[in-house]
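Question thread 4412

I'm putting together a teaching handout and wanted feedback from people who do this every day. The idea is simple: show students a protein as raw sequence, then show them the structure tokens that encode its fold, then repeat with a second protein so they can compare. Below is the first pair exactly as I plan to print it.
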Amino acid sequence: MTTTKLDLTGLKCPLPALKTRKALKSVAPGDVLEVHCTDPLSVIDIPNLIRETGDKVEISERSESRIVFLIEKANDLIEKANGLSPGSK
């Protein structure tokens, strides 16, 4: 399992969710994307995004100045079951 870090500190809504979605496309199933944000709205936006993608997310750190998400990329089987190819999102 590989962990890829994505530093989105300083970016405001909707950029953290958009950049997270883009980064997830290059993460292999089973690997983890570690996302660092400072925008308080990301605690709503990123979990909503992950519900759409079918991946797993947890907030590993949350303070007034920083939020860290750990996102585990799900198998492509979910995308195939929905009739989507991995690059069609």
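The second pair follows. I'd like the answer to focus on this one:
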Amino acid sequence: MIFNISRRKFVKGTTASLVLSSFGDYGLDLMYREKPWRVGLIGTGWYGKSDLFRLIQVTDVEVIALCDVDENMLEGAINLVSERQKSGKKPQKYSDYRKMLAKEELDIVLIGTPDHWHALQTIEALQAGAHVYVQKPVSVDVMEGEAMVAAARKYGKTVQVGTQRKSTPHLIDAKKKIVDTGLLGKIGHVELCCYYHMRANGNPPVQEVPDFFDYNLWTGPAPLRPYDGLPHRRWWRTFMEYGNGIMGDMCVHMLDTVRWMLDLGWPTRISSSGGIYIDKSGKSNTADTQSATFEYNGLNCVWQHRAWGHPADPDYPWAFKIYGDKGTLKGSVQKYEFIPRGEGDPIRQEVVYEREEYPEDLTEKDIELHAAPATRLHMLDFLAAIDQGSRPVADIEEGHISSASCILANLSMKLNRSLEYDPVKKIVKNDPEATALLSRDYRGPWVHPVPGDF
């Protein structure tokens, strides 16, 4: 069955109403094109497919090619995509993204691979002439992100980062009704947190790599760990070789959201402490407990995560809280709540679902239903930026600032001192040791991108 919503039905949905309020009738042109976008996806796992299916839902596309180093996952994705897209065609399949980019002429490339691949694949997709939608965090070291920004500007292409909280309907509402109208008053403090028990751990044995999985290519520029099972979904995230722990996975979303709401740029100073305090039984080398402070002039954003115990506020286990002298704004992926100080009524709004407009969401394996409307809006914002030659709401530069801030927090924890990053000189001020850690070593023959090359 091919899932495509009719124009008449679409314009009744929340996604449509927000798009039409922003773009007017032009919004319909984004969704209904004379010539479909030619699309490729690198990384056909959980979120790669999820992003692709949201794009298919909101505009006319022809998925030309899919790439994955896991043959089984790739075959499953090809069948699902052929059911979803209008043409019913099966995309071409590739195990090596470089071959896909060299052979196929693509308008858009979606990147849903693990974090250690984001930089190289984004840059090479840009060089191949495509616009890019890349998942967060954009990189695993700071200089990768700097190179991605430089490449996007050199090749004149649009790069949207998957920090879709900026396109979340109820958070857009919170920004407009609470922050922008000044209901919070003078803002002096922000708290960010994640208390999900999401840190995979364990001691699986070293084993033979299955024939259907190219582990060497999956590892790419990262260190080659002994193979101890398929790394998909959760296992790879528990290792700093491939990402930046819960800080890089979850803080990046909330920090990015607050930066967008409050119009914040680079922090002036970043400090962090933490480590593995409780769950020491397995192979995981990511922190199960971590605090970080992102300092701005007259304002601190303070992060806390614990992958154990109870959340400090059970109603907001992954959230931000913005404190002003006239009130407090609590926000999460599920809702927001404004509590005024003194007189006045609280203001609340819940997450928007679009179950009736997109019934296929209800049968999609592992879908985050609360995030689907946000990702649809995020895709439409991406398409509008391509069409208009403007910057999307989650432009690569903004995604880089949020990602790099989290990476610098991890470096601060490692070095046990605060860091001040200079984004112009691309150094940590007065700290040669920290500056040397802004780029990680690549495993050969992969070559680390350099911002000055673009």
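Top answer:
Good format. For the second protein you could add a caption like this: The chain has two domains: 7-166+367-395, 168-199+233-352+400-438. The longest strand covers residues 187-194.
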